[in-house]
Each structure stands twice: as C-alpha cells, then as structure tokens.
C-alpha cells in the first residue's frame, strides 16, 4: 500500500509556496497527514560567507544563473535525510506542459522533489544529472518557479485519496476524461435577472441529467478545440 506522499521543494523564496497549506483542500490534506511538505533553501548549502547561489553566465548575456554546487548539495542533503532519491522535477517554461494525466501519475509517487528556478534558470549540468523531468504550467514566464510549484502541488494533492470529502467530485473535473472539459454548473436561485436554470436539472431523471451534462461537456470541449485551432492559424 502506498504511504504518505512526501514533497520536498528546493526554493529560494519558499514563502511564496507556504500559504497553500494554510487554507482549503491542500490545508486539510496537510492537517490530515495525507502528504508531507518540506522546503529546502540552496543558500543553506552555499560555501561562502554571503550564501551565494548564483553567478553570471559563461559566454556573457543578461541576468544570473543558479550555480551547480549549492543545488547539488541540496539534492544530496534531501536524499540523505529521506533515504530516497525521489522523483526530481524542475519547474521550467521549457518543460512538458502540465496536463491532468501527468498530475494523476505524479499523485501515485511516494516522494517528489521539486526544484524552483530563479533568475535566468539553473546551470544545465544540474538538469542533465539530477532532474528526471521538466514541467511547465503554461507558455509564459514567471519570476521564479515557486508559483508554478504551488500550482503543481495543489493539482496533485487535491486528487489524493481522502483529500476531498466527495471523491467523485474530481472524477468529473475538466480533463478527467481525456481532454474533455467539465459541464456547466448551477445552484440557487432557480431564476435570477431573467436567467433560468435548464429544466432538465429539475426532472429527477438521473439518466437524462447525465446525458445533458455529457452533451454540454462535449460541446464545450469542441468549442475550445475550434478556438485553439483558430489561435494556431
């Protein structure tokens, strides 16, 4: 039986990630010990008095690059502490776009180590020797990998067993069935400002409701595909 998920995060600004365990689904899962979250700062493994973790890139160019040695020592410290190498991920705009299937796969792991870059990124030798996979949360650039890591952690934790009281909830999320989007949702009141809830939802006929929801989800998904195709032209 799979034990508690362990997530170790290597980050220069862990304060950007820590709030995810203060409220909501992730907080409850953390309080119920469904997963463990620990932060590791590469500055603690720097060898100089200034705790330097970055340097100018060879070959010139703007910005700074996170250095190999502090990151390598951080990975080694985690492995020594855990007794496990873990699956090592780097949050990067060059990575594979995060999709729900990948989230499901990661939720089955026992130990994840997430590296958050800063500045112009990390020394390529760390990626070549320590990283098992690079993950992107979209085709845009953030100031660092911390917020991307928070997105990844939230996506993983919410589908852990017992993380959500009604586990069927996430089974009907967008992308839970291939790339299909979720159907529309309605709640009280039944009518407001001339806007009415579809009558089928009051029919009590669960088969008809399921059929309507499936049709709406497929229509949404197709509309999205058309929009994406138009954007690619």
Automatic annotation (TrEMBL):
Name the record gives this protein = tRNA (guanine-N(1)-)-methyltransferase
Q: Which residues form a coiled coil?
A: none
Per the entry, what this protein does is: Specifically methylates guanosine-37 in various tRNAs.
PANTHER family assigned to the protein according to its UniProt record, in alphabetical order? TRNA (GUANINE-N(1)-)-METHYLTRANSFERASE
Q: What is its main location?
A: cytoplasm
* Keyword terms of this UniProt record: Cytoplasm, Methyltransferase, S-adenosyl-L-methionine, Transferase, tRNA processing
- What's the EC number here? 2.1.1.228
- Domain tRNA methyltransferase TRMD/TRM10-type, by residue range, is 7-229
Q: Name one GO biological process term.
A: tRNA N1-guanine methylation
Q: Which domain of life is it from?
A: Bacteria
**Keyword Metal-binding among record annotations:** no
- Binding-site positions, S-adenosyl-L-methionine: 117, 137-142
Annotated GO CC locations:
cytosol
The scientific name of the source species is Ignatzschineria indica
Query: What lineage is this protein's organism placed in?
Result: Bacteria, Pseudomonadati, Pseudomonadota, Gammaproteobacteria, Cardiobacteriales
Q: Describe the subunit structure.
A: Homodimer.
């Amino acid at each position: 039986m799979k034990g508690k998920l362990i997530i170790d995060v290597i980050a220069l600004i862990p304060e950007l990630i820590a709030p995810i365990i203060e409220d909501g689904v992730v907080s409850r899962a953390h309080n119920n010990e469904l997963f463990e979250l620990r932060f590791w700062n590469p500055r603690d493994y720097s060898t100089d008095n200034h705790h330097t973790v970055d340097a100018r890139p060879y070959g010139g160019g703007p910005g700074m690059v996170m250095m190999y040695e502090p990151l390598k020592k951080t990975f080694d410290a985690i492995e020594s502490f855990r007794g496990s190498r873990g699956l090592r991920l780097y949050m990067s705009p060059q990575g594979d776009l995060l999709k729900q299937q990948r989230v499901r796969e990661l939720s089955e792991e026992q130990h994840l180590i997430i590296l958050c870059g800063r500045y112009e990124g990390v020394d390529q030798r760390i990626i070549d020797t320590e990283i098992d996979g690079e993950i992107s949360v979209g085709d845009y650039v953030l100031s660092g990998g911390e917020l991307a890591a928070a997105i990844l952690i939230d996506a993983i934790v919410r589908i852990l067993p017992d993380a959500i009281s009604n586990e069927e909830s996430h089974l009907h999320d967008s992308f839970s069935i291939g790339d299909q989007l979720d159907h529309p949702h309605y709640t009280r009141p039944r009518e407001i400002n001339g806007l009415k809830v579809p009558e089928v939802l009051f029919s009590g006929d669960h088969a008809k409701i399921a059929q309507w929801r499936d049709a709406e989800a497929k229509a949404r998904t197709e509309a999205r595909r058309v929009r994406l195709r138009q954007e690619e032209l």
